[in-house]
Amino acid sequence: MNEPSKRQNSGARHEAIDAGDFVYAATGARVRRLTMPDGSHWFPAADVCKELGYTTTRKALTDHVPEEHRDNLETVTGSHSLSVPAGRTWRRDLQLIDLQGLILLVNACTKPACAPFKQWVAEVIETVQREGSYRLDEAEVQPAEPGAPIAYAMPDQVAEAIVRLEAHNMQLDEQLAEGQRTSIALQREMLSTQQATLATQQATLAVQQAMVRALERIADRFDTLVLHQGVPRGRPAPVPTTESVLADWRQRLSVTEDVWTVARAIAPVLVEKGELREPLESVAARTGLSVRRVNACLRLLRTHACIRSRGGSEDGAPVYVLHQV
């Protein structure tokens, strides 16, 4: 994108070929441009080198552009009492080249798009050497305003280069548009696939949830029908009593007096409430044993599969249930 012209008077020189078209034909690209009040044009060296295929701007300038045809942005604008253009890309130390520096870079590059312009430059030089001058043909249609400058026809090589560039750009635009259309179609297809996948996942989740609910119902029904493993189907499971529990425990281990004291204290609670949810201190108070001894007795009952632990209550008390065999 070119900066607006900085010309401040009507006496600015007339250009035989529009600067934008001239640079476009020379570089094959629309390059940013600053036009000074005296009509001179300056271009960011990095922009030109990038479009012409130079890998290093500094080396390209050192090799091909004399110092009098390059300067930094602050010096160029300051010499005309102008401020630096706004924007982060217009740094004060930005290296600029004038039109002659641009032409020198074009002549030194190997970009195929620059070949027609370079051929025209060679023709101009050859004509000047042969005839002493080179003059553009006047355009068939001249401005009607009195005193208007003469309009010149664009050289064939320059015009053909611009036509080819525009055709190439139109082709690239069409390719870009086609690529965008293809990308949109792919995105829509991916979205449709994702939606189908989501629907499948939701259906699978619903099936899994239904299976979990069914298994929970089966487990609940089994718990209510079978209390002891090995009870024949169709016969109700015997309901445990304190006496049957204590008798079973006597068969499982050699009961010491302390263990039997703890067993008699907790068996009625386990049978009546289905669980023992009582701090060890409370059991110790009821049995007259120490907390450590109560804990040892409970551990022994667990070891011999008389009771089993079911974690702890909210207040920290251990929870025990009968170990159903």
Please characterize this protein's 3D structure.
Keywords: DNA-binding. This is DNA-binding protein. InterPro entries: BRO_N_domain. It holds the Pfam family Bro-N. It comes from Streptomyces coelicoflavus. The protein folds into 3 domains: 19-136, no CATH class; 155-225; 242-322, Winged helix-like DNA-binding domain superfamily/Winged helix DNA-binding domain (Arc Repressor Mutant, subunit A, Orthogonal Bundle), CATH 1.10.10. The protein is rod-shaped. A hairpin with a 5-residue loop joins β6 (307-312) and β7 (318-322). The chain is α+β, with helices and mostly antiparallel strands and 325 residues long. It has helices at 19-27, 45-52, 57-64, 73-78, 99-108, 115-131, 156-225, 242-252, 257-273, 280-287, 291-303, and strands spanning 34-35, 41-44, 70-72, 95-98, 276-277, 307-312, 318-322. A 4-stranded antiparallel beta sheet has the order 1-2-4-3. A 3-stranded antiparallel beta sheet has the order 5-7-6. Residues 4-12 have low confidence and may be disordered. The protein has 11 helices and 7 strands.
